[in-house]
């Protein structure tokens, strides 16, 4: 007897109305009567439909798939979570969809340890890069707090990816303000001091963004003890020349308010 997954594939391969087929899959995700297998198959089909076809990515969002896909990330079934994460990643490859994905509430669940960590982090990066409007929406949705939590918990294996995404967000004024307000300065300074080479680089770049246009933020970062590890980084023979130069620029910025205050 043919499996539910086979039935879904047959439906889609024979459908002359692909929009109708997508609507049926979305309806299945939303139906309280759908079994776990039904949900898995519907999510998998949407994931596959969005994988290689840009037109399908737009059609799936137009069919109303985002709310039920985001809801899958909070379900206890690991396979459902995985299908949901990867479907959202595929949909986020289309820049026109990114604002809608953020508005559907995807940022929190993607940051919160959903299955498929690599795809979740890649989706977050897609959502938080590119258009400034998308980054602002992600900040408003609480992305900075979620990213800092990931960066402060190395055992979750998401530090590097989270730092990449945070770097994209602190390129905006809203992102910088949120990073400071949410306690990001100590996290970033600790990463400069004790992180891996790549983490030290990303933390330095994030702090440079934070400090470039704000004397108040520079004072906060300096008081957190950032200068000694940055000096060590600027003098490290193993660090890339470009990174050493960035560290020196940041050190110069951090010393400005201290010099004006008569401090060393």
Chain-wise SSE layout:
Elements (H helix, E strand, L loop, with lengths): L3 H11 L3 H13 L5 H17 L1 H9 L3 H7 L5 H15 L2 H9 L3 H5 L5 H12 L3 H9 L2 H9 L7 H11 L3 H9 L2 H11 L2 H16 L2 H9 L3 H8 L6 H20 L4
Helix pairs in contact: 1-3, 2-3, 3-4, 3-6, 5-6, 6-9, 7-10, 9-12, 11-12, 12-15, 14-15, 15-16, 15-18, 16-18, 17-18
Could you explain how this protein is built, in words?
With about 260 residues, this protein is an all-alpha fold. Helices cover about 75% and strands about 0% of the residues. It contains 18 helices and no strands. It has helices spanning about 5-15, 20-30, 35-50, 55-60, 65-70, 80-90, 95-105, 105-110, 115-130, 130-140, 145-150, 160-170, 175-180, 185-195, 195-210, 215-225, 225-235, 240-260. α2 (about 20-30) packs antiparallel against α3 (about 35-50). The longest helix has 20 residues, at about 240-260. The protein is elongated, with a radius of gyration of 22 Å. Mean pLDDT is about 85; it is low at about 1-5 and about 260-264.
């Amino acid at each position: 007897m043919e499996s539910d997954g086979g039935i879904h594939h047959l439906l889609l391969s024979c459908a002359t109305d692909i929009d109708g087929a997508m609507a049926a899959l979305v309806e299945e995700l939303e139906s309280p009567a759908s079994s776990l297998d039904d949900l898995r198959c519907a999510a998998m089909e949407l994931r596959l439909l969005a994988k290689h076809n840009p037109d399908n990515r737009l059609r799936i969002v137009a069919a109303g798939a985002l709310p039920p896909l985001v809801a899958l990330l909070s379900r206890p079934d690991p396979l459902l979570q995985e299908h949901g994460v990867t479907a959202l990643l595929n949909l986020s490859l289309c820049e026109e969809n990114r604002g809608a994905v953020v508005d559907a509430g995807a940022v929190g669940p993607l940051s919160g340890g959903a299955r498929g960590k690599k795809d979740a982090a890649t989706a977050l990066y897609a959502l938080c890069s590119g258009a400034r409007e998308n980054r602002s929406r992600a900040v408003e949705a609480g992305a900075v707090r979620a990213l800092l939590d990931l960066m402060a918990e190395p055992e979750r294996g998401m530090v590097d990816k989270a730092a990449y995404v945070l770097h994209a967000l602190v390129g905006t004024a809203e992102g910088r303000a949120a990073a400071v307000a949410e306690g990001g300065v100590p996290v970033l300074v600790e990463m400069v001091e004790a992180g891996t080479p790549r983490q030290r680089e990303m933390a330095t770049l994030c702090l440079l963004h934070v400090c470039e246009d704000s004397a108040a933020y520079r004072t906060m970062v300096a008081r957190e003890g950032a200068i000694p590890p940055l000096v060590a980084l600027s003098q490290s023979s193993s660090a890339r020349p470009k990174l050493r130069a960035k560290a020196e620029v940041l050190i110069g910025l951090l010393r400005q308010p201290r010099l004006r205050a008569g401090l060393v």
